[in-house]
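Changelog note: in this version the structure field was regenerated for every chain. One regenerated record is shown below for reference.
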Amino acid sequence: MKFCYADPPYPGQAKRYKHDPRHAEVDPIALMLRLEAEFPDGWAMSTSSPALRVVCAAMPERARVAAWCKTFGGMKPWVYPTYAWEPVVFRAAPKLANLDRQTPFDYFQSMPTMKNFMGAKPAEFCFWIFDMLGARQGDELVDLFPGTGAVTQAWQFYQATIAPPALEPA
């Protein structure tokens, strides 16, 4: 199966990446339509809570919203309350035969990555995404916005460590 993860600059935030010309403003609705068309096996897209009003209105029928709850949030005096979670819109394959492992929750709690690149995701977050999509050994993942490469590195580790699929009875 072939999955995709997209972590674009969140709507209205591309200007914060002024040091990196690869990060232009991305239309989240157009991106979701692209993910739906090109990745029928499943996809996930990180976004911001302020963008949910627009994103949810355009979500495909089987798509859902999950929550990454951060155990640390940067306190800013002009932001109340602090942004301490991020929505992840996803659509997994319609039939997942992953009964050989625990079903993931639609929320995940972890510390954000404290790297020198805004938006970098920790490996544990990536594993949660892979589990929600139903990824298995031998599947393919496309990382549309590779940034630091952390998602690709997590995918390589995940592929090397997850158990192979259980054999179906003959």
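Spot check on this record: The longest helix spans residues 150-161. Strands lie at 2-6, 43-46, 64-70, 85-91, 107-110, 140-143.
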